Amino acid sequence: PQHVVLYPLVSKSLRNIAAGKDPLEGQRHCCSIAQMHDHYSLGYPDLDELQKNPQPLIFDIEVLKVEPPGSYQQDPWAMTDEEKLQAVPQIHKEGNELYRQGKVPEAAAKYYDAIACLKNLQMKEQPGSPDWIELDQKITPLLLNYCQCKLQCEEYYEVLDHCSSILNKYEDNVKAYFKRGKAHAAVWNVAEAQADFAKVLALDPSLRAVVSKELRSLEARLREKDAEDKIRFKGIFSQ
Prior knowledge:
The chain is mainly alpha-helical. It folds into two domains: about 45 residues, no CATH class; about 130 residues, Serine Threonine Protein Phosphatase 5, Tetratricopeptide repeat, CATH 1.25.40.10. It has ten helices and two strands. The protein has a two-stranded antiparallel sheet with strand order 1-2. Helix 4 runs antiparallel to helix 5. The longest helix is centred in the C-terminal third of the chain and has 25 residues. The protein is elongated and about 75 Å long. The termini are far apart.
């Protein structure tokens, strides 16, 4: 038996991890003892009781599975800065493979993890500094891949937000204009979609056939919508 005074906070962090949350959620920068006094409730009655009345604990550890060397991949929050930087190319590659297999949500999750690694590193750099810019240029293609997944998952407003953030920094990014144009078209922002597709053509005239196809698709959807609206509202003003 071991008397473990700080176990309630450790257990809360482990439960956050299991739920996919930040393990330090709700904590502030101070020592562990101060953390315990700062939290009148940890959100779990059993941990609150243990915090009020510490007692010897016995831990039973069950082995769930054994993974061969090199097969285990840490979550981004658990990695050192160097491990994050080294992990990104492999996570990117795994995302690409999942996307090729048609596993789009799973690919998006991989891209998200790679972006999270780089964003964490970027937060430690001065915005606009050479190191910050280098990390941002690594983030951008991953973010565009993530947006492609979100387009296919029909999460268009997320695509609009991310592509706009890219274009605020890189005004000549053709892929960001194209993906944002598709997202605008999907949510009936016709003028905005047309403007983005026009920008694509201005930056890369070789994409005329692809852009023309998107514009024809948008026009066809507009005609269908117009016809549906006429049927839906037929006679409404003659009553």
